[in-house]
């Protein structure tokens, strides 16, 4: 029975440092620590060890801040470089669609003339007419997807050095 009390007390000492204790647990632990020299010494050693860890000097490389700033700036430059490309792509798509809508009657006449000259069926002409606008859109989607795949891949500067 005494062993269980000591085990519970040691667990509560650790729990008090990490999670905190309920009032009933704290009261029980304080009472036990007053009566038990072993558990009280364990609690004091735990407190000393934590104090020593808090005051321990942790050495970091002297250029850590400058390297971090350099990498943040590098990433900001990468983001700035990719942003105008995307904006230009959207502008090009918009211009393509505006030009496509404005030129639709003329393009249809060209397809109709081509159908009369070659004798192609009307379905082939309609498919060709539809592809006239979907191919640029598909090209834009492919470019965006490739850009997304490229951006999702881990950059060299993000990989931890070994």
Percentage of residues in helical conformation: over 70%
- Compute the number of structural domains: 2
Question: Which structural class best describes the helix and strand composition?
Answer: mainly alpha
Number of helices: 5
- Measured on Cα atoms, how large is the radius of gyration? 36 Å
- State the major sheet: none
Note poorly predicted spans: none
Secondary structure topology:
Blueprint lengths: L1 H17 L4 H13 L1 H19 L8 H55 L3 H31 L10
What does this structure look like?
This protein has helices at 2-18, 23-35, 37-55, 64-118, 122-152. The chain is an all-alpha fold. The chain folds into 2 domains: 2-55, no CATH class; 78-158. Helix 1 runs parallel beside helix 3 (37-55), helix 2 (23-35) crosses helix 3 (37-55) and helix 4 (64-118) packs antiparallel against helix 5. The protein is elongated, with a radius of gyration of 36 Å. The relative contact order is 0.06.
Essential attributes:
162 residues
Give a concise summary:
By secondary structure, the protein is mostly helical.
């Amino acid at each position: 029975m005494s062993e269980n009390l000591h085990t519970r007390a040691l667990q509560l000492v650790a729990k008090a440092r990490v999670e905190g204790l309920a009032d009933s647990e704290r009261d029980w632990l304080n009472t036990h620590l007053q009566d038990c020299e072993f558990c009280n010494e364990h609690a004091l050693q735990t407190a000393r060890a934590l104090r020593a860890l808090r005051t321990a000097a942790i050495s970091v490389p002297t250029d850590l801040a400058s390297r971090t700033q350099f990498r943040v700036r590098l990433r900001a430059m990468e983001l700035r470089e990719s942003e105008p490309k995307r904006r230009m792509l959207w502008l090009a798509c918009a211009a393509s669609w505006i030009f496509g809508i404005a030129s639709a009657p003329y393009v249809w006449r060209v397809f109709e003339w081509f159908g009369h000259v070659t004798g192609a069926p009307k379905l082939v002409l309609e498919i060709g007419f539809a592809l006239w606008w979907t191919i640029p859109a598909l090209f834009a989607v492919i470019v965006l997807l490739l850009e997304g795949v490229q951006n999702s891949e881990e950059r060299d500067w993000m990989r931890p050095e070994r």
